Amino acid sequence: MSTATKPRHIGRNISRIRELRGMKQEILGEAIGTSQKNISVIESSETVDPEKLKEIAKALGVTVEAIENFSEESVFNFFNSFYDNSSNTGAQGNTHNNHCTFNPLDKVVELYERLVQAEKDKVEYLEKLMKGK
Question: What sequence ranges are listed for the domain HTH cro/C1-type (predicted)?
Fold first, then answer.
């Protein structure tokens, strides 16, 4: 049984980081001056040209090392440690207040009411147009 680790799939790492950043292939392609199709080819490749990798890293806002060493486990560890540390207050001097100063549900209701009013205004305008004919 071999204990050798398999090489990291750089293209897959690029794809996952891009997805985590909420970026589409088209947008990444535009950022580095290539097409969506080329991004798809890059993401299916196990290795990537070092210069192209630098451009991609810059466009994704990460380092080349972050792409090369990316793992799903490290992402979960990062978010778990962030969550765990966010509840530490007092003795460590962490006094950040991360609580909303408004009720998010109120904002949803406000947005819904504005959308309903906009639709009513449209209907009223269209009825006036119809009466004018």
Answer: 14-67
The 10s digit of each residue's pLDDT in 73-110 is 766 665 566 555 545 544 455 555 556 676 778 888 88
* This prediction's pTM: 0.54
What φ, ψ does residue 132 adopt, rounded to 5°?
Answer: -70, -15
Q: Give the tokens for residue 54.
A: 């630098």
Q: pLDDT for 37-55, tens place per residue?
A: 999 999 999 999 999 999 9
Q: Which amino acid is at 18?
A: R
Which range marks the domain in which residue 73 is found?
Answer: 10-86
Whether the CB-CB separation of 10 and 68 falls below 8 Å is answered with yes
